[in-house]
Amino acid sequence: MKTGIQSWLDERFGLSIITKFLKEKTVPQHKHSIWYYTGSAILLFFTIQIITGFMLVFYYKPTLEGANESVARIMTEVPLGWIIRSVHSWSASFMIAFVLIHLLSTWLAKSYRKPRELTWMSGVFLLVFSLLSGFTGYLLPWDDLSLSATKVGTDIPRSIPLAGVWVTKFLRGGEDVTGDTLTRFFGFHVSIIPVFIFILLGVHIYLIQKQGMSLPLSAELKKEKVKEIPFWPNFVYREMIVWLLLLGILFSLAIFFPPSLDKAADLMAPAPEGIRPEWYFLFLFQTLKILPAKILFLPGDTLAVLLILVAGIVFFFLPLIDNKPAERKGKIITITALVLIVYAVAMTVWSLL
Amino acid sequence: MKLKHSLFTRRQFLNGLLGGWLGALLASFLYPVIKFVFPPTREPDQVILPFADFRDMNTVSVKNFLWGTKPGILKKKNDGSYLAFVGVCTHLDCNVSYLEEQRKFFCACHDGWYDENGLNIGGPPPKPLRRLLVSIEGEDLIIKREGGERAEDQ
Ligand code: HEM
Ligand code: FES
Fold this sequence. Notes:
The structure holds two protein chains of two kinds. In chain A, 69% of the residues lie in helices and 3% in strands. By secondary structure, chain A is mainly alpha-helical. Chain A has a domain at 28-272: Cytochrome Bc1 Complex, Chain C, CATH 1.20.810. Chain A is globular, with a radius of gyration of 23 Å. In chain A, 32% of the residues are buried. Chain B contains two helices and ten strands, in the order H-E-H-E-E-E-E-E-E-E-E-E. Chain B has helices at 10-37, 52-55; strands spanning 46-50, 62-67, 70-76, 82-86, 97-99, 104-107, 112-115, 120-122, 131-137, 140-144. In chain B, strands 1-10-9-4-3-2 form a six-stranded antiparallel sheet. A four-stranded antiparallel sheet of chain B has the order 5-6-7-8, with no helix packed on it. In chain B, strand 6 (104-107) and strand 7 (112-115) form a beta hairpin. The A-B interface holds A 148, 151-152, 154-156, 165-166, 169-170, 173-178, 180, 267-275, 285, 288-289, 291-294, 299-301 and B 37-39, 41, 43, 64, 66, 68-71, 87, 89, 91-97, 107-111, 120, 123-126, 151-152. Bound molecules: protoporphyrin IX containing FE and FE2/S2 (inorganic) cluster. Residues 89, 91-94, 107, 109-110, 112, 123-125 of chain B line the site of FE2/S2 (inorganic) cluster.
């Protein structure tokens, strides 16, 4: 049944193409369907980031003199400011966590196989921008921890041959981390990165609508008929249940464990003991810590950076490399994924000891 | 000499011309963007400090000074001469601290160690702390870059 307004709008926008599509869209039902919910969970947290981010921007001051103080004010004076900051901080962690789960599930299920290569590749960029968003946001409270983390993080690209020095200078807005870096990171965090995420999301989600959800490899090989449920309303209602659960967990954590704030960073002070990046960079942090100063003829961190660079490129092109998913090569790639997970978890745990 | 067949069609020629022109136009837009994004930052050639502030310092502790946007560390040796360092770890750029009892520089970021002469002796740092040249002229303590090196080459 169409109301007058609906048909008036439809005449102008032609929205019925979209509503018709959504009515006919189906989602496969099988024992791995649970991973289909991870993407929309990321969307949920991303939306929360946008809303709470808009609110924080009303009070935050991206300058050397004002940053730390303005965050302190949000935490103590602004009505309910502490909850908003806490939700923003927790939801960032949740978003990254779900990006990682989502990525691992599509990797292990090999849902990037033909024709979904570009979905994966746009996903790799989404991963990069999600991590960058977390990294730039970490500096904004401008306390000792965030300063050291930023100094280290922005110095890492320096060892990339040729371009590295320029990457570091671009990120820092100069040779060193200064007030200019803070202002620049603010720009990255609140405008540049979100715009890129929006564009990439558009591509990612368009591709998923165009191609439909992938089936498990086993079902596809056996040409089994897989049960399907309508996307609207059946699947969306299930997603909403997941969202409500996640929101409950998010708000509970945000209320009981608000993020801390140290005194304002001093650019000239020595790095404090116990510095530590956000949890999703801990594996990298620990790796940098244990690599010796020199490995063969290369400095340890140069080697690490080159490895990350090569791994990143391989990771991006993975759908093209993993082109025979059911054969030996495909199995080796799955095992590699598992080994990397074990490595990352082990390093993370070690860094916390 | 006149070729029997032309090497490319008129359309290809014009497309090439147009493409080249568009490319050049784009480059001329990109150049100022790139210039804009990298602010000029040069580290100082030298800093001049009042010697009076450092004359009486002991050989156990160190004193800090500003080396452009980096912390500088001044240390007095037993023979009365001075050593100056850029107080920034050669691993990944954290500011180092001087531990008096152990007579060592320490970087908390990844547990890097340097001896009192700035030599890297433990942990990930690949190089000694960067040295600066110290000279005393009348009432001035002058700290200079070592032999024309630039920070970018580090
Ligand atoms: C901001 C981050 C991201 C958002 C918001 C997002 C969103 C989504 C959504 C809503 C779906 C459909 C439902 C689902 O399968 O869960 C999806 C599918 C997919 N995503 Fe993402 N994604 C993100 C990051 C990534 C990353 C980092 C990768 C991998 C590198 C990736 C790879 C894929 C693939 C291959 C599919 C297709 C799955 C299939 O058809 O079975 N995505 N994404
Ligand atoms: S930055 Fe000093 S040890 Fe890594």
